[in-house]
Amino acid sequence: DPRKTLGREELVRRIIDYVAGAQSTIRAQIRAMGSSCDWSRERYTMDAALSRCVTAVFSRMFRDGLIYRGPRIVNWDPALQTTVSDDEIDHVEREAKFYTMRYGPFLVGTSRPETKLGDTAVAVHPEDPRWQAYIGQTIAVPWPKGPTITVKVVADAEFVDPETGTGALGVTPGHSQVDFEIARKHSLPLIQVIGEDGRMTEAAGPYAGMTVLECREAFVRDLQEAGLMARIETYTQPISICHRSKQPIEPLPKAQWFIDVNKPAVPWRGKLLSLKQVMKSVVESGEIRIVPDHEEKKYYHWIDNLRDWCISRQIWWGHRIPAWYRGPEEFYVGHRPPQGEGWVQDPDTLDTWFSSALWTWSTLVDPKRAADPQLDLKQILAASPDFQRFHPTSVMETGWDILFFWVARMILMTTYVTGQVPFRVVYLHGMVLDKDGEKMSKTKPETSIDPLDVIREDGADPLRLAMVLSSSAGRDTRLSKEQITACKRLVNKIWNAAKLVERSLAAAPATEGTPAQAVHPVNRWMLMRLKTLITTANNRLSGYAFNDAAEHIRASFWGEFCDFYLEAIKLESLKQLGETAAVLQHAFDCYLRLFHPFIPFVTEQVWQELRRPGYLIRAAWPEIEAAHDWPAEVEGVDAVVRLLTEIRRIRSEKEIPPNAKVDVLIQPRQHAPIFAACREIISRLARTTEPVIENAPQSSATALRNAVVAVDAAFTVAVSLSQADLAVERTRLARQLETEQQRLARLEQKLKDERFLQQARPEFIQSTKAEAAKIGATIASLRERLDSLA
RNA sequence: GGGCGAUUAGCUCAGAUGGUUAGAGCGCCUGCCUUACAAGCAGGAGGCCAGUGGUUCAAGUCCACUAUCGCCCACCA
Predict the structure, then answer these.
(1) Sequence-separated (6 or more) residues with CB below 8 Å from residue A545
(2) How far apart, in whole angstroms, are the C-alpha atoms of residue A16 and residue A353?
(3) Deepest of A132, A203, A328, A407, by most Cβ within 10 A of its Cβ?
(4) Model pLDDT for residues A710-721, shown as the tens digit of each residue
(5) CA-to-C1' distance for A746 and B53, Å?
(6) ∠ Cα A307 A308 A309 (to 5°)
(7) Is the pLDDT assigned to residue A565 strictly greater than 60?
(8) Is the CB of A253 under 7 A from strand B?
(9) Strand A82-84 and strand A67-77: pairing?
(10) Using CA atoms, how far apart are residues A31 and A12, in angstroms rounded to an integer?
């Protein structure tokens, strides 16, 4: 026990040393992750200014009657020798014995016979006919080897269910939460038979000095010998264990400091509310939004079940309770001890969440003002520029596991102290789990990953991106090696694309005009795709769907920019257009800006190497350009992309050697000028000879005899083959015809349906009609080709 | 006992305000070292969206119930 060997001062000194080391580790991790923090405003809850806030709040709550000291059943951890809060307790189930013993005229059940030595009452239901005669009596119960206890028989309809157990409940006010409540209600005495050391007290008579388990064994044996044990059964017992020590909690009566959550003492929006009511009201009213929504329900449920908050801890590290005593009578609460000799400070410290609960504003107080003993809290806040400017916080980001510990307590404290909400939005991220689905935790180092290790191995960018991509609000995520590897590939892709962009820009003529003046359909298409992307990314980001935003950016960059646009502009004639250089630069700039929050290091490096102005981290987020408005080019080039896929598919299926060029005949049904403008692109990307584009179908069926044909809504394309397998093609086209006919049938059915025509949105009916017409045209082409193959 | 969530491709997961043929990464199959990138490129296979009912012109998406799994809370007679 370091408290015994070191003493208070030395222990605290060592903890301070430990904290210094931990702080520098955490700082290094945050920096290595690329978090952009204002390091000049780094704060620690034990800083002088923050400590001043802690004692000031304590004093004020005490004055307002919201903090009181009183005996309560607390969750005592005999292993750690301290109380723990309700929220620091885990519930586990285990096999245990359940004892039913004779108890005067009653049979009472318990899983903890040793506590019965401290019983002061038996509670029964007031309408239970079995016990009517005894209600109100006081009965002496002599235990076989002592002591003799006197129990009062009380009737209670609230706590006693006549159907449960024997219908008679032995009341142990000193060692049971409920029994303590019953005792308070019926003014029963309290006998403490278990001490803080986990051993029986003098009140336990002959059992004094035994541990709880020793006493249980001995007492049960004595009861059995005396014939007082009716039965012993085995059952599954829910028990409370301390989250930190994993040892069973011993409920004990102790004088502790509490915050009263039910007393109406907080002026809020014109009413006097309890802390509970304020906490509930600010979320219900929408002043605070919790993301994801369903966490709000858990928050309400927690508040509904909330009891007074025990804030004192019997540990030495933390903010010491600002209460001083002199003798048994004198008592003072304040930041400093009162004048005079002999004042002793309360040895207990405050629950760590007490100071953390002040975080959104205690970090913003001006340290100089906080050091001025003349000022009270209100004056300190009024004179703190950061508080005036930055409070409330816009978005509070933390894990869902501390919604109750921290978020709820910040709401409680901040509304009470400042009259403001602490933040507008709470974004709760999920837990990062290890590969076995275990939550990573400080107390379980074997489950934890040190970001510095991952960063050394794979880099900070892939780690960040993997974490963002694999998690949505409130949902846990397993951090996998595969995810990080996939992200590494994206980062690498950006780097390689940058090399190509740099080379292309160096080889291109000077950029001409603005992107908005671009004419070539491929350039216009790129700008339109970007515009759609920025719009989507903005929507997703403002909806806190960070993973979704990142995914859209990734898909557009890789699938549209790299796979199509960069390939397309390798074509000399396109590359040499002055507008292309302008569009290329603009587009790549946009992607870098969009990627930067997710991939800060590589994008910044690329930005510098391309000699873009200033720092990317300070560059503006891309704008949605209203002038970029060419819907026809988007549809047309999309059709060209599909055309490329069709030709490549035919090549692949027919096993045409990659370097062999094929002859193609294209019959556009729409966007003919765009197909024409993309002639060279088609030729290059699909490896064809000069494509023949027929605006009006001229080629006879026989000319297409040795060809494979693909039919799309926007075009029909024929790829010449020396030996086309007509049977295979017929089968494929017939299958396509069938699916297209089914789709058309579905749409036509809809369009015939009166209810659809009356009730669907007009725009949707329009687009359904347009779709049906397109499919109709596709079907006509398919039939034509099938006929010619017949 | 009370509350909250999950169930979508072989695996890990996205699918905002209901809308026409449901997506990604990894894995798998085929072919390519094409002068940014083989950590890549091109093509492909693979899903009655857990089940049943309902609301709706229209359901992976909304509602009810069921099944399975997970988490949180709970006054351990």
Answers:
(1) A472, A473
(2) 19
(3) A407
(4) 888 889 898 888
(5) 25
(6) 110
(7) yes
(8) no
(9) antiparallel
(10) 28
